[in-house]
């Protein structure tokens, strides 16, 4: 697999790493976004993480910049930062992950990225302050064919 094979759109879901069973799966939810990646053959990675938004409005977004290693399976690391002048300008997250195995006998399997995410900087204020250091696990499932 080549780094450029990561190019595409994904449904991104992240989960709190709670060790105990939960009665409501939503208690594990850290985020659900659209991830758009562009990867060059040299391993340069760029893209967007798009937050949900009402129809007709622009989605808040993180700009993605990172690198894909030439290992097998592919390993990647990227940074997501909010755009200056937007409501999420102070967002800063770090992502580290790999491409999950494709089973030879798998039916309907899609490329899936898996890893961990770190909130690298505080964002928000007052009661909505989100402190740096929070971690979560993530899966990103490739959309389309």
What would you note in describing this structure?
The two termini are 17 Å apart. The relative contact order is 0.21. The chain has one domain: Beta Barrel (Lipocalin), CATH 2.40.128. The protein has an 8-stranded antiparallel beta barrel with strand order 1-2-3-4-5-6-7-8. By secondary structure, the chain is mostly beta strands. It contains no helices and 8 strands. The protein is globular, with a radius of gyration of 16 Å. The mean pLDDT is 94.
Text of the CATH class: Mainly Beta
Broad structural category:
mainly beta
Fraction of helical residues: under 10%
Strand order of the largest sheet: 1-2-3-4-5-6-7-8
CATH architecture: Beta Barrel
Provide the β-strand percentage band: over 45%
Order of helices and strands: EEEEEEEE
Q: Indicate how many domains the architecture comprises.
A: 1
Biggest sheet features: 8 strands, antiparallel, barrel
The name CATH uses for the topology is Lipocalin
- Which radius of gyration do the C-alpha atoms yield? 16 Å
What sort of overall outline do the alpha carbons produce when their principal axes are compared? globular
Distinct helical segment count: 0
How many β-strand stretches?
8
Distance between the termini: 17 Å
The overall average pLDDT, rounded, is 94
Poorly predicted ranges: none
Question: Outline of this structure?
Answer:
The chain is mostly beta strands and 145 residues long.
Break the fold down into its secondary structure elements and pairings.
Elements: E1 8-15, E2 29-39, E3 44-50, E4 61-68, E5 75-82, E6 92-99, E7 112-119, E8 135-142
Antiparallel strand pairs: 1-2, 1-8, 2-3, 3-4, 4-5, 5-6, 6-7, 7-8
